[in-house]
Hints:
Elements: H1 16-19, H2 22-30, H3 69-75, E1 78-79, E2 95-96, E3 108-109, H4 140-149, H5 152-157, H6 160-163, H7 168-173, H8 177-189, H9 192-206, H10 213-217, H11 221-231, H12 233-240, H13 251-256, H14 266-270, H15 286-298, H16 306-321, E4 331-332, E5 335-336, H17 346-368
Amino acid sequence: MSMLAPSSAYDMQIDALVHESSFFKELEAKGEIHIDLSEPPSRRDLSGRGDTTYLQKRQDDVVPTTVSESETSSTSSITSAPSTSAGVETTSAPAIATDTDTNLSPTVVSTSISPSITVVTTPLPSPFDTSLGSNFTQSSCPSFFSTFLSNSTFQSCVAVSLLLQNSNSFFRAMRSATLLTQTLDSACNAPLAICSPLMTNLASQLIDADNCGQDFKAENALVSQAYAGLIAYEPVYRATCLHDSITGGYCFSQAITNTTNQADSYPYYSALGLSMPTDARPTCSQCLKDTMTIFAGYAQDTKQPLSNTYLTSANQIDAGCGAGFAELDIKIGSVDGKKSAAPPSLAGTARTITAAATVAAVAALLSFL
């Protein structure tokens, strides 16, 4: 007796009224089973008749499809049906794979290609991603840094104002337009209504006597830069999220990657309290004009580092781009902006040197990355 494998068997519906004889009905009534013990008939060779078609269950739910040999070899993958036991020949027509919930036969022809996509996730840049060092007066100061840097809400804000001076990972991201754009996308998608108050609160806690107050008074460079970056979060956020109306790209990305005029990046550092070098002449673009308009508004707040740098930078830009390019008629607190446009003091000169040194250090680092 030959058995068909389950994958090759077919459920055939036979009309009992037509195929059952009265003899079988009589056996059914008596409850008897007769077994034929005689030799099975010899296997018939149908190849000579050219008849190679066997009974198969009709598949009403499959749409007939013709797949050419070239299409099958280039865009299709075929899986053979499981082989049957010896002595039984079966053939089965391939069924085309579709997107519908149909019952498919074991042989499948796929006419679509599902590409394999590898997604590489690059961590976003983070501030103070190198050792904080040990140059602190209070042991509580580095502990406070570790606490706020590990805060998930703080991390989700992607504060570019803190990345500008103190992030090696951000310096590396600036080497790639793609990575820089991804960083700015994340930074600009952060909710300003949540992140801005958070940064202001962290700045207040930073200079508290229980945290880094003594180091701030001692003008510890790391603490001073952290404070400026936290306070300047909002103006830097608004400026770095500006888009070029012509190219559609980020103004900041275009400025920071402009190798023909390094001065294009200087205005962004002025938001951190770093004045531009006196001979700097940024490109007179709409991006620069829009950036200075944003900074003009925040320069009126005496708590912002821009209150110490904006007017000097605006005068320099007007000298190169024409009168009125950057707004000068502003008041810093109760002080008239025009009267405050005098040459920078010694402290201002020190900040100017620091600004130039900062940008030069970034450029030098980028050349080796």
